[in-house]
Amino acid sequence: LVDRMYRGKSSDRELEGLPYQQGEFIAFRLDNKIRKASAQANKLDDVMRELLKQADDAGGTKNFSAQEIAIAFDHYVPGALRQELSKVEDGQVLCDEAFSKLSFYPKECY
Predict the structure, then answer these.
(1) Residue burial 47-78, b: 16+ Cβ < 10 Å; e: rest
(2) C-alpha–C-alpha distance, residues 69 and 90, integer Å
(3) Can you give the pLDDT at residue 98?
(4) Using CB atoms within 10 A of its CB, is residue 22 exposed (0-12), middle (13-18) or buried (19+)?
(5) Whole-model pTM?
């Protein structure tokens, strides 16, 4: 998305914040998927703790590949991270009923 914005030479504060908003949407959606798949036993924090443990085991820091991060998510909800990221890469609007009351909810979702 950012590449497309800058290639098109269009940028403003609203557009520059979009990748961060998409990240928040994706995190929220992944957290919900993890909670549903585990009957509320697991959440996004558990994935992050797993990644932090891997970093700690590697000496305190680790540059994770996208594949390594996807594998960590796969332990909780197989394929969910790849599915969410492919929506963004395909330019799909991330709609979620839980966000419908927010002021910046995408108008394409109504």
Answers:
(1) beeebeeeeeeeeeeeeeeeeeebebbeebbe
(2) 20
(3) 59
(4) middle
(5) 0.73
Instruction: Answer yes or no: are the C-beta atoms of 34 and 43 closer than 8 Å.
Output: yes
pLDDT digits (tens, 9 = 90+) for 24-69: 888 988 999 999 999 999 999 999 999 999 999 999 999 999 899 9
Q: Would you say residue 83 has pLDDT above 80?
A: yes
Count of beta carbons in the 10 Å neighbourhood of residue 24: 12
* CB burial readout 79-89, b (16+ within 10 A) else e: ebbeebeebbe
